[in-house]
Design brief:
Number of helices: 11
Helix content: 25-40%
Radius of gyration: 29 Å
Largest sheet: 6 strands, antiparallel
Shape: globular
Distance between the termini: 50 Å
Number of domains: 4
Number of strands: 14
Structural class: alpha+beta
Order of helices and strands: EEEEHHHHEEEEEEHEEHEEHHHHH
Length: 397
Amino acid sequence: MWSDVVVCIVAVSKFWFVTKFVTATRTSPDALVTNSEHAISTNNDEPSFHKLLVTNVNIAKDDDLALTLAKWAVEHHISHRAINDLLAKILKPRFSFLPSDARTLLRTPRLVSIKPLSGAGEYKYDQYLYNIDGLPLSKSSSSQLYPILCNLFDNRRYVDVVGIYHGYDKPKQANEFLSEFVNDCKDIANEGIVYKGHMFSIKSKAFICDVPAKAFIRYSKGHNGYFSCTKCKIEGAFMNNRICFPNLNGNQIRTDSEFKLQLNKDHHTGTSILQDIPGINMIDDFPLDYMHLICPGVIRKTINFWCYGKPSVKLPFQNIENISNSLLSKAKNIPSEFNRKPRSLSEVKRWKATEFRQFLLYAGPVVLKSNLSIDRYVNFLSLHCAVFILSSTKYED
């Protein structure tokens, strides 16, 4: 007994493409018979296996087909160009009621809310509930974007765009850039969200930003300031052309209340309107950016010291060759869970953050064991163990 069979078939030349959800009921598998007025039957000259597959197929309402196609395109992240080709070459000749353009199919709004800013760009705002960073659009101009991105803490696979700033310079004032975003966060935090009859309470979990972006939106000193640390009030020292914090004191931890009162004047450059978001903690809700600080930060500098540093820290050429050869030999057996295969140390200047992470957490302890002195190897393993524990999902709560 065939019941609730879901199938969609469109004849194009002598091929059949699945394009539509259809419900059919038939006691025999030789045919799928429906009561639709728009049923399509196979031609006599079609191959016999086609006749066995389908005799009549129910084509549902026009709007249902367009809606199903739009949902499929969104769920599977199909590009507009691919949708346009699918419509023009396959679907449109058979289903004339379908639109010719992906934007019409997906009902992309023609107008968006645009708020002019005093800087050299404009702010395009879309409602939603956080990552803020800048990125250049091309190497030939200073055109750049500053998006506000978000996702759910319990579902980090999907990222949504809250708002985008475009200009030829960074936004002049972070408070102006964030004003609409903060207003929405306040409304959502105070009133909640009703979805399918249920009220949801929303809280801003964290702002994941690199050091320059964090200093920009918090109105605090950048990483080259003497009181730039976002977690403690220790004054830095200028050593080897950089700011360091050699004198650690656990009693000088920053607190949310002290930050909002600006008791440490040397840490602040202004007052951020992010403080107006209900329940936000200006210290705990701005975690350290592990990707930039550790992967292309500490690990990149460490490898550069080994390869291009002063004679006191630089490794012998043969050791570097041994490490590179060991990495390349493991590239042949690297599992698919890793985004990239290991590359030679000669290409370290082109390594991505995922490659530095792979080196620190997986490949490094193996390839370095016989190529570093004991004290250097133990030093590397200390960082490896610490980051491995901190990045484990067992302890993320």
